[in-house]
Write a structure and sequence with these properties.
Elements (H helix, E strand, L loop, with lengths): L3 E8 L13 E8 L4 E5 L6 H9 L6 E6 L2 E2 L10 E4 L11 H10 L5 H14 L15 H14 L5 E5 L7 H18 L3 E5 L2 H7 L2 E6 L2 E6 L1 H6 L4 H6 L6 E4 L1 E3 L2 E4 L2 E4 L12 E5 L4 E4 L3 E2 L1 E7 L3 E8 L2 E8 L9 E4 L5 E4 L2 E3 L4
Parallel strand pairs: 3-8, 3-9, 6-7, 7-8
Antiparallel strand pairs: 1-2, 1-4, 4-5, 9-10, 11-15, 12-13, 13-14, 15-22, 16-21, 17-21, 18-19, 19-20, 22-23
Helix pairs in contact: 2-3, 2-4, 3-4
Bound molecules: adenosine-5'-triphosphate.
InterPro entries: AAA+_ATPase, ABC_transporter-like_ATP-bd, ABC_transpr_FbpC, ABC_transpr_MalK/UgpC-like, Mo/tungstate-bd_C_term_dom, NA-bd_OB-fold, OB_MalK-like, P-loop_NTPase
Family: Belongs to the ABC transporter superfamily.
Membrane topology: Peripheral membrane protein
Length: 356
């Protein structure tokens, strides 16, 4: 297992790249802890696969270095990086048994047969595959085959990291839930450094200790699920994490008061703001209260989604989503009240700290 250092990495697919926009991956400079479970989360085209391929060695970054436990592996080929990979689609040997599929990476490295047997049995148990150890992979379902791929990814005890590229894509929804929880447990038991690419926030939030949110070729935030929810560093994080996402409204700020379309919204403090920046307020639908005497709002629609209601409203000309607990009535002539401590101020999309 290894600590992974991404040392001022940038990547452009076009060798003549110059402007920031030419880079599929803009500068990444981070250190990922040994034994951490990281999810790379973001929409299609944001650079997740590019970053994963740089870690695996499929791509050499245009700039910067990658280090495993302090040693530079930038110029090492994938097979020399001592990593395991699990892809979107199962990679299994159909003619082999489930047991032999798992034993393969170990036998390939001349691991003594007694150790192979011990390790394979351990992983078969961990992944609930023990019951089908003697079956040939041919004829198994796509779910079962992908489970074998996952198990094979875990079988070597000496890898620097395990990289997962959208591994649950072919899995049916119920099984997805089961495997996600299993992977989390396997991470705790094994202590491997794991990097998991997905565009599904539920997958990322269940699996990872730290979620790396990517947007437009940049890492916009690395944080625990709670940090991403409570303090999104960028409006994209607020919008992408949560359902519905954070409300973002253009505003003008004077001292500790924000004006949104003529309405005064109190803040918890006065933010430091550079002149000429585009200012927005971000507030999650869960931290807005509907009550009499609040700021005027017009309710357009109420969606009942089981344990909660989502109120779609318009406030000062802006769309606003509000989450109301299922058993709470929506008062007639309701107004809105924003919890000042839950309002984030964003300048050119990045969160600004409040003055103490
Ligand atoms: N081989 C390539 N040559 C040129 N451009 C590429 C290549 N691979 C990716 N890109 C571009 O680089 C950017 C990042 O792509 P990347 O595949 O890393 O994103 P992603 O977040 O993994 O997306 P997805 O979830 O769709 O796989 C995109 O604009 C993509 O079009």
């Amino acid at each position: 297992m290894a600590r992974i250092t991404l040392d001022h990495i940038r990547h452009a697919y076009n060798a003549r790249a110059q402007a920031a926009g030419d880079y599929a991956l803009k500068e990444v400079h981070h250190e990922w802890e040994d034994g951490g479970a990281y999810a790379l989360l973001g929409p299609s085209g944001c650079g997740k696969t590019t970053l994963l391929n740089i870690i695996s060695g499929l791509i050499r970054p245009s700039e910067g270095r990658i280090l495993f436990d302090g040693s530079d592996v930038t110029d090492l080929a994938t097979e020399d990086r001592n990593i395991a990979q699990v892809f979107q689609f199962p990679v299994v040997y159909d003619t082999m048994t489930v047991y032999d599929n798992l034993a393969f990476p170990l036998r390939n490295r001349q691991v003594p047969e007694a150790t192979v047997d011990q390790r394979v049995r351990e992983i078969l148990e961990m992944t609930d595959l023990a019951g089908m150890a003697k079956r040939r992979a041919r004829g198994l379902t796509a779910d079962q085959k992908q489970k074998i791929s996952l198990a094979r990814g875990l079988v070597r005890g000496d890898v620097n990291a395990i990289l997962f590229d959208e591994p649950l894509t072919v899995i049916d929804p119920h099984m997805k839930w089961v495997l996600r929880s299993q992977l989390k447990r396997l991470h705790r038991q094994s202590g491997f450094t794991m990097v998991y690419v997905t565009h599904d926030q539920t997958e990322a939030l269940t699996f990872a200790d730290k979620v790396v949110v990517m947007y437009d070729g940049q890492i916009v935030q690395i944080g625990t699920p709670a940090e991403l929810f409570e303090r999104p560093s960028h409006t994209f994080v607020g919008y992408f994490i949560g359902s519905p996402g954070m409300n973002v409204m253009p505003a003008e700020i004077t001292g500790a008061t924000a004006m949104v379309g003529g309405m005064a919204v109190p803040l918890s403090g006065a933010p430091h703001l550079a002149a000429q920046s585009r200012i927005e307020l971000g507030i999650r639908p869960e931290f807005i209260k509907l009550e009499r005497g609040g700021l005027p709002v017009s309710i357009e629609k109420v969606e009942d989604i089981g344990r909660q209601k989502i109120v779609r409203a318009r406030f000062a000309g802006q769309k606003l989503a509000i989450v109301v607990p299922e058993d709470e009535a929506i008062p007639a002539e309701a107004g809105v009240r924003f919890d000042p401590s839950a309002i984030g101020v964003y300048a050119d999309s990045w969160r600004v700290e409040m003055e103490a």
